[in-house]
TrEMBL record:
The lineage of its organism: Eukaryota, Fungi, Dikarya, Ascomycota, Pezizomycotina. It comes from the Eukaryota. It holds the Pfam family DLH. This is Alpha/beta-hydrolase. InterPro entries: AB_hydrolase_fold, Dienelactn_hydro. Residues 31-244 form the Dienelactone hydrolase domain. One of its GO terms (molecular function) is hydrolase activity. The keyword Transferase does not apply. It comes from Paraphaeosphaeria sporulosa. Keywords: Hydrolase. PANTHER family: DIENELACTONE HYDROLASE, PROTEIN AIM2.
Length: 247
């Protein structure tokens, strides 16, 4: 494994303040959050694969709106069909049971990803497509970073990524990592770096101190180091997409 399976830290975080600017629509039968750039262009687009909190968590909607504000048509498909984990679940919530019995795996998620990409590249006319994966979603950035699918990838604190999935990417990949992260700890970061060094694709890995797993989307913004790291991880993603999507 290039990163470990999810744990309780994948559902811990702070709900951010703000009002979403996008809207929930459907791609086929899948609820999807849409956020458009000011010029309404869909030529350059980003699809966000969420953590286990899903698309209705305001934080990911605000992140999608931020990408849109930077010129990228952004969509966030519901990979879980609404069956998500609540933020900061109560002590009696059995997360590991949810992971083992309820969490969707590739046979359920891959068709959603495929349908989303097909809709974007077909009906909506997307020319260049980036993938963003937070935690659980990082796996699907790696799985779909292929010719004709995702052109560019970015993931923050990924989980559930297999060695084979990372070895199989065919496009540029940027990774934002937390200093304290049992899902993507130092040994997994080094393993991932060793894999990427042997591959003929551009890559980047930034490590942020004083933050934990989930910081790029669920950071406590009242803490200066966490706020700084979250903002820098987002700017990392935008700079990466500006380099490899806006051609």
């Amino acid at each position: 494994m290039a990163s470990n399976p999810p744990g309780r830290c994948c559902a811990i975080g702070v709900k951010h303040e703000g009002e979403a600017q996008g809207e929930i629509k459907k791609i086929g039968d899948v609820r999807t959050y849409f956020s458009y750039p000011e010029n309404k262009s869909t030529q350059n687009a980003i699809v966000i694969f969420t953590d286990i909190l899903g698309i209705d968590f305001i934080n990911v909607q605000l992140v999608a709106d931020q990408f849109a504000a930077n010129g990228y048509f952004t969509v966030v498909p519901d990979l879980f069909n609404g069956n998500v984990v609540p933020v900061n679940p109560p002590a009696d919530f059995d997360l590991m049971k949810w992971v083992q019995t309820e969490m969707p795996h590739p046979p359920k998620v891959d068709p959603i990803v495929e349908a989303t990409i097909r809709h974007l590249r077909g009906e909506l006319g997307v020319k260049r497509l980036g993938g963003v994966g937070y935690c659980f979603g990082g796996k699907y950035v790696c799985r779909w970073l292929k010719e004709g699918k995702l052109d560019v990838g970015y993931t923050a604190h990924p989980s559930f990524v297999s060695t084979e999935e990372l070895e199989g990417i065919k496009g540029p990949l940027s990774i934002a990592a937390a200093e304290t992260d049992q899902i993507f700890p130092a040994e997994k970061r080094r393993e991932s770096e060793d894999i990427l060094q042997k591959m003929n694709v551009p890559y980047q890995m930034n490590l942020f101190s004083d933050v934990e797993h989930g910081f790029a989307v669920r950071a406590d913004l009242s803490k200066k180091p966490a706020k700084f790291a979250k903002e820098q991880a987002f700017l990392q993603a935008v700079a990466w997409f500006d380099e490899y999507i806006k051609q």
